[in-house]
Design a protein that fits this description.
The protein is an alpha/beta fold and 234 residues long. The protein has one domain: Ribonuclease H-like superfamily/Ribonuclease H (Nucleotidyltransferase, domain 5, 2-Layer Sandwich), CATH 3.30.420.10. Helices cover 41% and strands 14% of the residues. Strands 1, 2, 3, 4, 5 and 6 form a six-stranded mixed beta sheet that branches. 26% of the residues are buried.
Length: 234
């Protein structure tokens, strides 16, 4: 599955009152592995950033003056995200801004081009109710190194979000070992072992272990948006 982690920086908070996108950062995962096929744009918004927004991203009007306008990069951006699952932290904010930019460029709303949009902030609130769930707070909780984040930057934040999301969803696919891949990387070939002559003991989980297992299953089910396969086949 192709997933894109997306973040934007803007001139302010109100897309419907003239604020514009000044930076877009996208990070691609395919089958839960970083591909390096990322996308990044600085954009000339045609207006100054509000003081508070500038303090967040540090992108001055002078720096952005020679950068392309959104309509110039719109087709390249849409081709990149097309049919992918998009993960955004506080998705309504970014999608709202992208919709306004796309409308200005004569394009359809953002969701018309992608497979789906996942709001990682909503997911985090389900997993960690009552706790701070900003990207910085999640990095600290999930031990993701964000020491290089002095200012917000769309590409850096998208990279951090990818790490956070993989940790939030437990990286279960990464735990599966491919013996062929292991041999290609220099591992020793695995010989099959016949266990038919062994009498293997059956270890039964105690009540505490069963309770811990059930809690872990519930968290994974939440992380998948209630789409856990074992729930459907149980």
């Amino acid at each position: 599955m192709r997933q894109i982690f997306l973040d934007t920086e803007t001139t302010g908070l109100l897309a419907d009152q003239g604020d514009r996108v000044v930076e877009i950062g996208c990070v691609e995962l395919f089958n839960r592995k970083l591909t390096g096929n990322n996308l990044h744009f600085y954009l000339n918004a045609g207006r100054d950033s509000h003081e508070e927004a500038f303090k967040v991203h540090g992108l001055s009007t002078e720096f952005l003056r020679d950068k392309p306008k959104f309509e110039v990069i719109a087709d390249e951006f849409l081709a990149y995200v097309r049919d992918a699952e998009i993960i955004i932290h506080n998705a309504p904010f970014d999608v709202g801004f992208l919709n306004v930019e796309l409308q200005r460029a004569g394009k359809l709303p953002f969701r018309d081009y992608v497979s789906s949009v996942v709001d990682s902030l909503a997911l985090a609130k389900e997993m960690f109710p009552g706790k701070r769930n900003s990207l910085d707070a999640l990095c600290s909780r999930l031990e993701v190194d964000n020491s290089g984040r002095t200012l917000h930057g769309a590409l850096l934040d998208a990279e951090l979000l990818a790490d956070v999301y993989i940790n939030m969803t437990r990286g279960q696919d990464a735990l599966l070992m491919d013996s062929t891949e292991q041999q290609e990387e220099g591992g020793l070939p695995m010989e099959p072992v016949d266990l038919s002559g062994f009498e293997l003991p059956v270890l039964t989980a105690n009540p505490q272990e069963l309770a811990s297992h059930d809690e872990a299953i519930q968290q994974i089910n939440k992380a998948s948006g209630g789409k856990a396969i074992w729930k459907e086949t149980a």
